[in-house]
Amino acid sequence: MDLHNFASWPRRATLLLVCCTLAACATTPVPTASVVVPVPCVKSKPARPALATDAELAPLDDYRFVLALDLYRLQAGPYIQKLEALVDACSRLTPTP
Question: How far is it, in rounded angstroms, from Cα 72 to Cα 70?
Answer without folding.
Answer: 5
